[in-house]
């Protein structure tokens, strides 16, 4: 029988883990923000969802204003809320795949990713099929949007890069 020991995590290990998380969050923001565009005033997206900053929809109210700094801080706080479920659904992703699928979840929602058919493909090593499936999600409100098609192609391309 092997002995079970408590292993203390050093402050350096904690800092390294936090830095790794910050690095992936920064990479996700760099990929996602240009597709979203930054609006400092709340608006309704093409399907009527109240949105502000770089696609933020939670807690947004009509007439709301935010500065660039507030938008960046809000996105940095919220991206991990999408990255976490991506990592739980598909624990063996590459960094590029984590970025691509977190961008998808940010844009479409975690539930949409969960029910997209992508996680089982990726978890069973069907990488091309999982990445290709992103291309099926280029509509909003029943309409194909060129910007959404471009985004899905960019996600797929990143997903396939090792």
For the record, the CATH architecture stands as Orthogonal Bundle
* Biggest sheet architecture: 2 strands, antiparallel
Poorly predicted tracts of residues: 1-10, 12-17
Q: What class do helices, strands and sheet pairing give?
A: mainly alpha
Q: Spell out the helices and strands N to C.
A: HEEHHHHHEEH
Mean pLDDT over the full residue set: 89
Q: Given this structure, which CATH class is correct?
A: Mainly Alpha
Query: How far is it from the N-terminal to the C-terminal residue, by CA?
Result: 40 Å
Total E-strand runs:
4
Task: Describe what this molecule looks like in 3D.
The chain has 162 residues and is mainly alpha-helical. The chain has a single domain, classed as Lysozyme. It contains 7 helices and 4 strands; from the N terminus they run H-E-E-H-H-H-H-H-E-E-H. Strands 1-2 form a two-stranded antiparallel sheet. Strands 3-4 form a two-stranded antiparallel sheet. Strand 1 and strand 2 form a beta hairpin. Helix 1 crosses helix 3 and helix 2 crosses helix 3. The radius of gyration is 18 Å and the shape is globular. The N and C termini lie far apart (40 Å). The N terminus is likely disordered.
């Amino acid at each position: 029988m092997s002995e079970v020991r408590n292993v203390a995590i050093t402050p350096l290990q904690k800092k390294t883990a936090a830095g790794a998380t910050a690095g992936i969050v920064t990479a996700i923001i760099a990929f996602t923000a240009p597709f979203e565009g930054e609006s400092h005033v709340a608006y309704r997206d093409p399907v009527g969802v109240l949105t502000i900053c770089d696609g933020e929809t939670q807690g947004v109210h009509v007439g709301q204003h935010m500065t660039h700094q507030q938008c960046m801080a809000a996105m940095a706080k919220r991206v991990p809320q999408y990255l976490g479920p991506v990592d739980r659904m598909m624990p063996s992703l590459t960094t590029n795949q984590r970025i691509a699928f977190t961008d998808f979840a940010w844009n479409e929602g975690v539930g949409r990713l969960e029910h997209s058919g992508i996680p089982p493909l990726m978890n069973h090593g069907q990488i091309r099929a999982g990445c290709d499936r992103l291309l099926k999600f280029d509509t909003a409100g029943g309409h194909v949007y060129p910007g959404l098609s471009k985004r899905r192609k960019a996600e797929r391309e990143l997903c396939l890069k090792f």
